[in-house]
Amino acid sequence: MTDRRALLVGSALAAALVACASSAAAQTISSAPDEGAAQESTDTEITVTGTRIQQPGLISNSPITAVDSAEIRLQGATNIENVLNRLPQITPDANENVSNGSDGTARINLRNLGSNRNLILVDGQRLLPMQATDVNFLPSFLVERVDVVTGGASAVYGSDAISGVVNFILRKDLNGVLADVQYGFSNHHNDDQARRSLVTASGYQNALSSPIDGQRFDANIAVGKSFADGRGNVMAYFGYREVQPITQSNRDVSACALDPAQNNTVFTCGGSSNNEFGLFQPLTGPNAGTAFNNTRDGARTWVPYNSSFRYNYAPLVYFQRNDKRYTAGAFARFEADPAAEFYASFMFMDDRTNSQVAPSALFQGSTYTINCDNPLLGQQQGQLLCGGAYGTAASQNLFIGYRPVAAPARPRRDDLRHTDFRVTGGVRGEIAPGIRYDLNGLFSRVLFNENYQNDIDPVRANRGLQVVNVGGVPTCKSVVDGTDKNCVPLNVFQYAGLSAESLDYIYSPTFTRGMDKETVLSGTISADLTNYGVKSPWADQGVGAVFGVEHRRESLVFHADALARQKGTLESRGAFNVTEYFTEIRVPVFENRPFAEELTLTGGYRFSKYSTRDDGISTYKGEIAWAPIRDIRFRAGYNRAIRGPNISELFAAQGLGNISAQDPCSGATPAATAAQCAATGVSAAQYGTIIACPSEVCVAQGGGNPALRPEQADTYTAGVVLSPGFLKRFSLSIDYFDIKVRDYISSIPASLTISQCIATGDPFFCSLFHRDPRNGVLFGEQGYVVSTTQNTGSLKTSGIDVGANYAFDTGIGGFSASFVGTWLKELRNEPLPGLGSYDCAGLFGPTCGQPSPKWRHQARLSWSDTTDIASVSLNWRYIGGTKLTNNTDDPFLTGPTYVLNARLPAYSYFDLAFTAKVQGGITFRAGVNNLLDKDPPAIAQGLLYSFGNGNTYPGTYDVAGRTFFIGINAEF
Fold first, then answer.
1. What is the DSSP string of 634-675?
2. What is the pLDDT of residues 869-894, one digit of tens each?
3. I want to staple 602 with a disulfide (CB 3.0 to 4.6 A). Which of 77, 118, 623, 736 is the partner?
4. Number of separate helices (H) and strands (E) present in the chain
5. Tens digits of per-residue pLDDT, 497-556?
6. Spatial separation of the C-alpha atoms in residues 123 and 36, rounded to whole Å
7. pTM of the predicted model, to two decimals?
8. How would you write 74-94 as a 3-class SS string?
9. pLDDT of residue 47
10. Spatial contact of 755 and 763, defined as CB atoms under 8 Å apart
11. Interstrand relation of 118-122 and 164-170 (parallel, antiparallel or unpaired)
12. Which has the closest alpha carbon to 160: 748, 744, 826, 788?
């Protein structure tokens, strides 16, 4: 009874309800049934994540961490990725806290090897096209359990399962009604006096003292009906989720963009030189190379530019994007005969989210032209720009950094919409005792629409700057000559000089549209040969085997409108298919023998033939499990895995895009020497005059490569599981993992290219610079670092996972506790073969990106009362400290030394949840995450890479403050 009570309230410390020895083989985050069970087919036969073999009582030899529905509800999670990102094996990836540059998806990054190197499954089948996997698609209220399998699994599931597999097991057999509703919000007490004083001193607006924002509403319902004496079931569901945004203006840590000052020892409020008053740097004429700024008083006068004019772009940026999502779907099955059970599913999602950043600008980097007789040009401005040619029809070229921010100017918004559906169907059954088959198909489609709003069109802006006097009325030259009758003159020569008509003219939305499709046809035969006598003489259970074939096709079409193409977004299309043959075999060698309670060998093989290659590729695995006694079980495995390049990596057209980087050759006193800068393409005349990348945002050239080879990975795992008989309901698992990926598909990070060329002068890295020939910058239309896709070097990670679970009863109720932690030994990257490598374990910053602590863990302690009514649960999340890459002595990672952010301290977060049965099948829940309202670490802008936002890493650290939730779950 106590086991059942703990299961129902879900208050047990993740995985504390491991009531049988078999479940001890998994690290669990909440109550989980037999380890790795993906779906039950009979009372005694289950399918296990990590293998396709079906046998009674089967236990996976692969290390598995399981998260169940109780844990999801205890966290108050409406975004399933937030639950998984708490696991120490997973590094936050694309999520709701990414604004600038977001594609609107939520992805999972297992072992920090990249979200494209783990395979996402639903009930053992691929979720969506690998190119567009988005876990927003999943109805979280129907997730019964999530199995996270460490290490390569390509022999079982095919390409992409390099770092492991994440398998979502959904509830699909409802007989009645299930409803779930939840509301939540965030609240943070802004009392960081150091940040507030800094913002005040800079003349900016401080965050509100105690904002309430980020409201969430999630409502879901499912209806199901069994028929034909339980041989059939039909079920349908519908869900709606709405999330309100959080702006950076509402948190102390993000109220202004933080830059380092005084030799990187203190923070200062930085910003963008593309400011609201207007920066002008002539490229020709008497003052070529000199930067001027409009005065603050609105007069049409220039003064020398200085950093006090910089614009604080932070306040309007979203810390948490708004979101509106609809999900719907249906599941059906019918067993016409034990040899023929028909099944099908349909899942649909329409998700719309917006990212928001600061208002657009006439950005530096684009070359603009102003005629010297422009009537909007002030006299002093005209003389500085044109000299003696002022008032004539002559023209001058210049960089402009003018950002309209006063009304009616508007922030830039990226409207991102995904409309996805997934259809599966098949037939399965037992055609002879122990012989089962499964024939199935899957089709999924992802439709992506993007509308980027309120961005300034530089072509129209250039027309609006070329103005003449026509009868006393400033008029665009393009109106006079008829090339653009709609042109409106732009008065950029004074603060807030642009009219509503001017803004309407230069604001030009861009539209892009992409469609990914995936088709999978699969067939398997699984055999339990126990009844046929095919077994070891020392074992009771027979050999288990599976044979199968699978064909998969993926395609992508991506369109961009003319303006998007003009701004560097290029169209692409492509497709590939792969046919695969696979097999697995499991041989119990010893069972119930002295010093061999169990000794089992497992092997697997898959042959893959890609349409993009002439030859085939083999993947394989070997595993062993040995239990000398019931209380202890050893396991070890080896997997060879592959990842074929996805469509974008193969076929994406090459184009330019923004990246976070610093140009060490910029400024009046560059950080690099003249000789070092010469290796990057800086001329002697340019040295000391190059403009820094605005807001430390440079440009890189990216794109696909049809000649890419598949990645290959070798994974080694070894572990032990303890479940002592003298300590009931206790388990401890310790597993070592070692994963190495060769020929990994990537682009060489621009920050690495820059640092290596400067530090070593290596011709390979230095050849990747393409500086603007006019002025040497690394931004704009002609300045960039080459960063196209290619097979590069290797990735390697290793470490140890620890999981512990314990549950016991007392006179005052039941207690349960769980713990799951990961020690990261290494996270090594070799950019190119033979070049050397760098280790990011325990580091953050340029090249390594977001923090990779050497130790992370999550622990939950729960209590449930003796009446099976109420429970209370406390969760502890720990994130180890990390050091800044710049301050290491690794030549790949060294950079300017920072006293600021030299080390990010360890962080502990505590979450509290309460559940209570109201009546019947109705359960009430409430909770607060980040109970102590802990601030995230403040990090300088130049040190934020890969999902950094708002002066911190919001995927790693809580940025919203306390988050409260209240919900109700009803089943009847």
1. EEEEEEEEEE---HHHHHPPPEEEEEE---TT-SSS-SS-HH
2. 999 999 999 999 999 999 999 988 98
3. 623
4. 14, 54
5. 999 999 999 999 999 999 999 999 999 999 999 999 999 999 999 999 999 999 999 999
6. 11
7. 0.88
8. HCCCCCHHHHHHCCCCEEECC
9. 53
10. no
11. parallel
12. 744
Token digits of residue 796: 């390697």
Distance CA 35, CA 51 (A): 12
Q: What pLDDT score was predicted for residue 48?
A: 75
Tokens of residue 218, six digits: 């999630």
232 has which bridge partners?
227, 334
- Give pLDDT, residue 67: 93
Q: What percentage of the chain reaches a pLDDT higher than 70?
A: 95
Q: What is the mean pLDDT of residues 39-68?
A: 70
Cα separation, 498 vs 456, whole angstroms? 12
Q: Is the pLDDT of residue 36 over 70?
A: no
Report H helices in 581-654. Answer: 647-651
- Torsion over CA of 650, 651, 655 and 657, rounded to 10 degrees? -50
639/152 Cα distance (integer angstroms): 5
Exposed, middle or buried: residue 829 (CB in 10 Å: 0-12, 13-18, 19+)? buried
Give the separation between CA 704 and CA 706, rounded to whole angstroms: 7
The per-residue pLDDT for range 168-201, each reduced to its tens digit, is 999 999 999 999 999 999 999 999 999 999 999 9
pLDDT class of 14 with cuts at 50, 70, 90 = very low
Q: Is the peptide bond prior to 846 cis by the omega test (within 30 degrees of 0)?
A: no
Asked if residue 658 has pLDDT above 60, the reply is yes
3-state secondary structure 114-164: CHHHEEEEECCEECCCHHHCCHHHCCHHHEEEEEEEECCCHHHHCCCCCCE
* DSSP state letter for 257: -
The one-letter amino acid code at 143 reads V
The CATH classification of domain 2-193+211-249+320-355+417-451+512-653+704-747+788-971, taken from the options 2.120.10.30, 2.40.170.20, 2.170.130.30, 2.40.50.140: 2.40.170.20
CA distances (Å), 582 to each of 53, 63, 492, 609, 889, in order? 12, 22, 66, 12, 47
Joined together, the tokens standing for residue 936 give 């995230």
Nearest one of 605, 806, 719, 602 to 63, comparing CA atoms: 719
Tokens 């992802």 belong to residue:
446
Rounded CA separation 182/927 (Å): 11
Contacts of residue 532, Cβ cutoff 8 Å, sequence gap at least 6? 434, 542
Neighbours of 486 (CB within 10 A): 11
Strands 870-879 and 510-528, bridge-based pairing: unpaired
Please, which residues have CB within 8 angstroms of residue 486's CB and are 6 or more apart in sequence?
Answer: 505
CA-nearest of 301, 279, 300 to 290 is: 279
**406 CB-side CA count, 13 A:** 10
For the four alpha carbons of 645, 840, 84 and 48, in that order, the dihedral sign comes to positive
DSSP secondary structure string, 716-767?
A: EEEEEEE--TTSTTEEEEEEEEEEEEES-EE---HHHHHHHHHHH--HHHHT
Give the single-character DSSP code of 566. Answer: H
Query: What's the token pair of residue 562?
Result: 């003319």
Cα(355)–Cα(71) distance, rounded to whole angstroms? 29
Domain residue spans in the chain? 2-193+211-249+320-355+417-451+512-653+704-747+788-971, 655-702+748-787
Specify the pairing of strand 510-528 against strand 26-28: unpaired
